[in-house]
Design brief:
Layout lengths: L1 H38 L10 E6 L7 E7 L5 E8 L4 H19 L4 H15 L6 E9 L4 E7 L4 E5 L2 E5 L19 E4 L5 E5 L1 H4 L10 H11 L6 H11 L8 E7 L24 E8 H6 L3 H8 L9 H20 L9 H17 L5 E11 L2 E10 L6 H5 L12 H8 L4 E2 L5 E8 L4
Antiparallel strand pairs: 1-10, 2-3, 3-4, 4-5, 5-8, 6-7, 6-9, 9-10, 11-12, 12-13, 13-15, 14-15
Helix pairs in contact: 1-2, 2-3, 9-12
């Protein structure tokens, strides 16, 4: 009887310790989740052209879904899947979200964001932990989608009745060192109405009663049978229920539809300074030569410099879009002498960007010069930007005679700049472009 009494007392003590420890862990998770939700917030996932479904398998799941606008109105979308669940997955997700949101807001491209994400995860994650990810940029202005897939299941681009698989061509983030990490992306045309569908491996790894997996074939059957793109996620979800599957992992799906350009609808960045110390009379000139053109994207640096001018902040998205087009045209059509007529159809886009990659890697000379001038004008001021390159130029009179046609897939850069900035002009040799932005008295 004494032994039984001691055993009962031991069991009760252990029960109380377990309950106390459980309450402690739950409180830790609640605090951590509050921090996690603020860092890895949803961004612009509530946009009308984005639909998604996430079914968490635990308090913190391994899947991460983020979306954010760039300053020029493009949309960056990230679907990531960390190894493991719970706090370890959340610990990796928070720095990933921080890099994604901060660099997207500053106007960095996918290559720079990917390099920073990989370097940070490689530095902080243990060797047995990594992050599969699919990162894409949907540009309504340029009518294309840029994709990087490292270890995620195939995504799908539905365009004009044809479906293109967005296959994984890279290792996951956090595996390779920075000097061997491959940030090369795939660029495909994407006109208004086209959709991109991404999913986590929890969809195809859902296990049925007979221990069979849902698999890629069943998923593609659902995609083939879909007649209303807006119902695709609901149809995949219904197919998983009909399969009577038990999800082994988190199920995450997202679909984004390309829209007509809505540049001015992008939310403005909030600034904390008063603007009273804004520089109002200055000029600067930059010349980016071969080694810099191969590795460096100057646009975020230039935009950050210009946004110090209080009067230009309201025009930030337009300035970023115009600068991006002028720099892209100077680099690709000027220095690299690429023919934009290649960008007609998926195969043409692939050839164009393959040539861009090859010519950029082999570049030994050439330059792109960017000159900025800010000056007072009455109660406000104006910004004059001049971009010139070392290329052979183009027939300015012939290009200017074209109507402002933004529906074609190639040769849209000049039309877009003229539409966004009516004061734009080009030199007679086609090797330089000048645009002007002005602002009135500040309230």
């Amino acid at each position: 009887m004494e032994r039984l009494w001691r055993l009962q007392q031991t069991v009760l003590q252990q029960r109380d310790l377990i309950a106390e420890h459980s309450d402690y862990l739950l409180n830790e998770q609640r605090v951590a989740k509050a921090v996690f939700d603020r860092v890895a917030h949803s961004g612009c996932l509530d946009a009308p052209n984005i639909r998604y479904l996430q079914s968490p398998y635990a308090l913190f799941n391994g899947d991460l879904l983020l979306a954010a606008y760039t300053p020029s109105g493009d949309t960056h979308l990230l679907l990531a899947d960390f190894t493991g669940h719970g706090l370890p997955a959340a610990i990796g997700a928070m720095p990933l979200a921080e890099v994604f949101y901060s660099m997207t807001a500053k106007g960095y491209g996918l290559a720079e964001i990917l390099r920073e994400m990989n370097a940070k995860l490689k530095r902080i994650l243990p060797v047995d932990m990594f992050c599969c990810a699919a990162l894409l940029c949907v540009s309504a202005q340029r009518r294309c989608v840029e994709v990087w897939n490292g270890g995620m299941p195939d995504g799908y681009l539905q365009s004009g009745g044809q479906r293109t698989a967005l296959t994984s061509q890279h290792l996951p983030l956090g595996v390779l060192r920075a000097d061997v990490f491959d940030h090369a992306t795939q660029v495909l045309p994407m006109v208004p109405g086209d959709q991109v569908f991404l999913l986590s491996d929890g969809v195809i790894d859902t296990c049925g009663p007979d221990q069979q997996l849902f698999g890629v074939e069943r998923l593609e059957q659902v995609l083939d049978a879909n007649r209303h793109p807006l119902q695709l996620i609901a149809e995949v979800e219904q197919a998983l229920r009909d399969f009577q599957g038990r999800a082994r992992d988190d199920v995450s799906m997202v679909q984004i539809t390309s829209q007509m350009p809505q540049l001015l609808g992008v939310p403005a960045t909030l600034y904390t300074d008063s603007g009273l110390c804004s520089p109002l009379d200055w000029s600067a000139s930059f010349e980016f030569r071969a080694a810099s053109l191969q590795q460096f994207n100057p646009l975020p640096y230039l935009l950050q410099l210009l946004m110090e001018v209080h009067g230009l902040r309201s025009q930030g998205p337009v300035i970023h879009a115009v600068l991006g087009e002028l720099y892209s045209n100077a680099l690709e059509h000027g220095v690299l002498a690429l023919d934009s007529r290649l960008k007609r159809g998926n195969e043409g886009y692939a050839r164009y960007y393959q040539q861009r990659k090859e010519r950029l890697a082999a570049l030994h000379d050439g330059y792109v010069r960017v000159s900025l001038q800010v000056e007072r004008a009455g109660e406000g001021g104006r910004l004059i930007v001049r971009v010139e390159d070392s290329g052979e130029g183009f027939d300015v009179a012939r290009v200017m005679a074209r109507p402002l046609d933004l529906d074609r897939l190639s040769g849209r850069g000049v039309s877009l700049v003229r539409q966004l900035c009516p004061a734009a002009s080009w030199g007679p040799d086609g090797r330089s472009a000048t645009v002007e932005f002005s602002w009135g008295a500040l309230a």
